[in-house]
Specification:
With about 280 residues, the protein is α/β, with parallel strands linked by helices. It is built from eleven helices and eleven strands. A six-stranded mixed sheet has the order 2-1-3-10-4-11, with helices on both faces. α5 links the parallel β6 and β7. α1 runs parallel beside α2, α2 crosses α9 and α2 packs antiparallel against α10. The longest helix has 19 residues. It is globular and about 55 Å long. The two termini are about 25 Å apart.
Length: about 280
């Protein structure tokens, strides 16, 4: 385990401990897991203020958690280790069936759009030019950033070699540096990425719009707690502080969600991709 990861996790532990002063069945603390689509440090910077905001608005103590990589996060989801989660729609339909999670909110008018990015000044202008090349992806079962673009390429008989680099941050930076000719990503996280790096990239391909990432909750969390958190999320765009937090995470706003909102994903022929 590297020192930066240990330091980041120490930050999470310290933050979580600070929320336990008034622990109780209705106030928490409750863990809030966010998939490691970006580095742990970047996620902490973006999500700890959201947890503080929601805790203040609801009286429900929420503390942010993530994992060192997507496979570890999936394992923790399978074991129902998080009370609340923010997850991609494929993971949601998987763990709603096996681990007791139910969607209760998502981005207002939000859509998941998978992307492939290339260097802005590079020679690639058509996905056919990727044939035979090694392409960066965050992890084998990252739905928007890996599964969708890789299956699009395979459907077009464009054979590529996937190289897994652990996070979307790593994908974008490695393509910007010219380490890979292209990489898989997701439009919302790309929109909130470091402007200097983003300026060095160009979106080569965008998928059709699909249901957005889900805010989901485990069945063990009291319904009155879920209602408080859902209302606070829904009202975030009604205050300057909430709007600033939404903007920092490239969200339009939040609204109530239902399990059936993800039926479109259930109807897709999703076959997990095995790492090579």
């Amino acid at each position: 385990m590297n020192k930066s990861w240990m330091a980041t996790m120490a930050l999470f532990v310290t933050f979580g401990a600070s929320l336990t002063t008034h622990a109780g069945p209705a106030t928490g603390p409750f863990s809030f897991g966010v998939g490691p689509v970006q580095s742990a440090t970047e996620l902490a910077k973006r999500w700890n203020p959201v947890m503080q905001y929601l805790s203040e608005k609801t009286g429900v103590q929420l503390h942010f958690q993530t994992a060192k990589d997507i496979p570890t996060f999936q394992s923790q989801m399978k074991d129902s280790q998080f009370d609340f989660v923010f997850i991609n729609p494929y993971h949601y339909i998987t763990f709603s069936k096996t681990s007791g999670y139910t969607a209760f909110a998502h981005e207002k008018d939000g859509k998941l759009r998978s992307i492939l990015v290339v260097k802005n000044d590079g020679p690639i202008h058509d996905v056919a030019q990727l044939a035979g090349q090694t392409i960066a992806f965050p992890a084998p079962n990252a739905f928007g950033a890996t599964w969708l673009p890789l299956n699009m390429l395979r459907d077009k008989n464009i054979d590529v070699t996937p190289q897994y680099v652990n996070s979307l941050d790593s994908v974008y930076r490695s393509v910007a540096k010219g380490l890979f000719p292209a990489g898989g990503g997701e439009m919302r996280t790309f929109g909130s990425f470091d402007p200097a790096t983003k300026a060095a990239l160009r979106v080569l391909w965008t998928s059709e719009a699909l249901p957005p990432f889900a805010f989901a909750v485990h069945s063990r969390v009291p319904k009155e707690v879920v209602a408080l958190v859902q209302k606070a999320l829904d009202n975030m765009d009604q205050s300057p502080e909430g709007l600033a937090l939404l903007k920092a995470n490239n969200f339009n706003g939040m609204e109530a969600a239902d399990d059936k909102d993800y039926d479109a994903i259930r109807k897709m022929n999703i076959r997990p991709i095995e790492a090579k």
